[in-house]
């Protein structure tokens, strides 16, 4: 298609027509027999068959390149495939707005707000008008008598792709950022993370056959993050080393309780774009969790609100680390979490029996987290949700403790180290001051071996 488009100079028309034999769902007749009389009779059944399909690749004045596929066997199925980015490019060109294309997207535009309005204006009515227009121009599978009898094509959504493109001002830094995003979010395919992205309740895994997984696929040197939910998928990749593309592909609208008719397109747009935004927000919070020193000190001090008072969250306290790791598991769940949920997770993280943790201890921990601003109570309920500030605190505390402090202590204390590490070599090398410092040092002082923090990092 791309090769033929380069030589196609007209504003609108058919570029070429192709024919292919494909395995297609059709209706066929089979012979059955009456169990009483034994007489045969035809019966219509739904089967698949290898039949000819005709592909009509064309260019529309408003939509750009698209194709229509017609099946040559009853019930003469048809398929329309169009690209919303090509529609946006055509509209920008017709309005004389300067833009720079990014393959399947827009890299830059002189009027970005107008571009967004054009994208939002791609409605079900416009798509239906495109089909009706070309059905009038092209040979129709239905005869005039068929159409007079009421036979016509109607739309159902076979697949919908909804993408969010964020252009990066520093492409090299963007690639490094995306590789870190992949490393930090390999668990997004788990059920507890999927319901956070799609805002849907996930039933017990024993009672559902849905697919939950996260995949990292490398095409050449470009990695992509793939998150699967039933028949749908979110794909995120670094597009042409210039932009971060996040696209949700919905292959079965029933996965979200939405019908397949074309008038459901606004609802699918809402679901797809909301999933893109939630995924980006989760990645942003997990990537950018740096805190100021004042905030770090304030978390470790007692907090008061009116007559209520709670102790500080000490960084190296194992109970505090278990409490914060439990909060990460909740991850801003839309329905929140209960005191019983917190008890179960604290017991699992501390290796104790849930019955050994009293209700008073859980109430105290909830008040402690609430006064420090890490959680908030959902109105008119007994549930809590983790705040954005709370998620940053938990990510910073737990990652710093598990990824920096614990490995550094293992390297700094050779008697407790199980294996040699790259960071341990500088720590065991004795500090040798130069000759000038030796002469200036007082004979009454004892020289100590020292290490620099940079060696630990």
Describe it.
- It is a single chain.
- The chain has 16 helices and 15 strands.
- It folds into three domains: 1-141, no CATH class; 154-288, 2-Layer Sandwich (Alpha-D-Glucose-1,6-Bisphosphate, Chain A, domain 4); 293-401, Arc Repressor Mutant, subunit A (Orthogonal Bundle).
- The relative contact order is 0.06.
- The protein is of the alpha+beta class and 457 residues long.
- It has a five-stranded antiparallel beta sheet, with helices on one face. A four-stranded antiparallel beta sheet has the order 1-2-3-4. A two-stranded antiparallel sheet has the order 5-6.
- The longest helix has 25 residues, at 388-412.
- Strand 9 (222-229) and strand 10 form a beta hairpin.
- Helix 10 packs across helix 13 (388-412).
- The radius of gyration is 31 Å and the shape is elongated.
Main structural class = alpha+beta
Task: Classify the beta-strand content into a percent band.
Answer: 15-25%
Largest sheet: 5 strands, antiparallel
- Number of extended strands: 15
Distance between the termini: 53 Å
Please state the overall shape, judged from the principal axes of the Cα atoms.
Answer: elongated
Total number of distinct structural domains: 3
Helical stretch tally: 16
The gist of it:
The chain has helices at residues 2-6, 84-94, 112-120, 124-137, 144-148, 171-184, 191-198, 265-287, 293-300, 318-330, 339-350, 359-371, 388-412, 424-428, 435-440, 453-456; strands spanning 13-33, 40-60, 64-71, 78-82, 99-101, 106-109, 160-167, 212-219, 222-229, 232-239, 243-250, 303-305, 308-310, 375-377, 384-386. The protein has a 5-stranded antiparallel β-sheet with strand order 7-11-10-9-8, with helices on one face.
